Amino acid sequence: MSENRYRHVIYRVENGIGRLTLNRPERHNALVPELLEDLERALNQCRQDLPDVLVIDAAGKSFSTGGDVAGFYDTPRAERHTYASTVVGTLNKVICQLLELPVPTITAVHGMVTGGSIGLVLASDIVVAGPKASFAPWYTVVGYSPDGGWTALLPERIGRGRALDVQLTNRTITRDDALSWGLAQYGTAAGEQLATALSLATTLSGHKTGSIARTLRLNRPDPQHTAVALERERQEFLEQITTDEADRGMAAFLGRSA
To answer: Which residues form a coiled coil (predicted)?
Structure first.
């Protein structure tokens, strides 16, 4: 087995199966520049290793709670545009890396997935969800603009009207919703999502690699179209993050005085 330990990500390959673990459990794997840069490095290494399959999972109680609100709020407003551009821009690169990875990806989800971290799920080929898996945007509550593929990728998965309703009302997509709407393909009992994902990976690793690669290219969202849509999300996010409304929303979310 080979293993690379980054600050907030662990990547290893064993018996032809790659496994990438988000490893910032004390902050619910919230997305900060360092974690996203680790994901970039791990996916670059995965592209060199070319395992048969890549499994993505997360340590701790949550898969990921998206962009770290405290990270945005604590960044001086004059510097927040640059900070946000780094966070959302790097997340977009990671999403595109996953969509262009020439091996199938299986993501094992447990606990909360909020904000931009849904992009890691939407860019996956197969999603396995534990019973407490949930997905929520929080943008209209906190005062952000959608990123992470909420507009670029989710409507294709669950329908535009449904995706818009979820984002406007901040409705939580439950595990059962995710399964019935096509956001997830497999549901498991508590604590079994990773084992199920690894079992699926073992099955896929026995299939013909050339056939799998062509199947992925024909079925995945178009990378160029997706990159354009993600860039539009980034631009809207950057305009919104420096508004008074965003300041008030973040302060309220964090329980601080604006």
So the answer is: none
Number of folded domains that form the chain: 1
On the question of pLDDT at 214 being above 80, the answer is yes
Nearby residues of 74 by Cβ (< 8 Å), 6 or more positions away: none
Residue 95 in contact with residue 120, Cβ under 8 Å?
Answer: yes
Provide the domain limits for residue 134.
2-189+207-254
Q: In CATH, what number is assigned to the domain containing residue 217?
A: 3.90.226.10
User: 0.85 cut: is pTM over it?
Assistant: yes
Contact predicate 102/53, CB 8 Å: no
pLDDT category at 1 given cuts 50, 70, 90 is confident
Q: How far is CA 200 from CA 122, 150, 177, 196, 206, in A?
A: 18, 26, 22, 6, 10
In sequence order, what are the beta bridge partners of 10?
5, 21
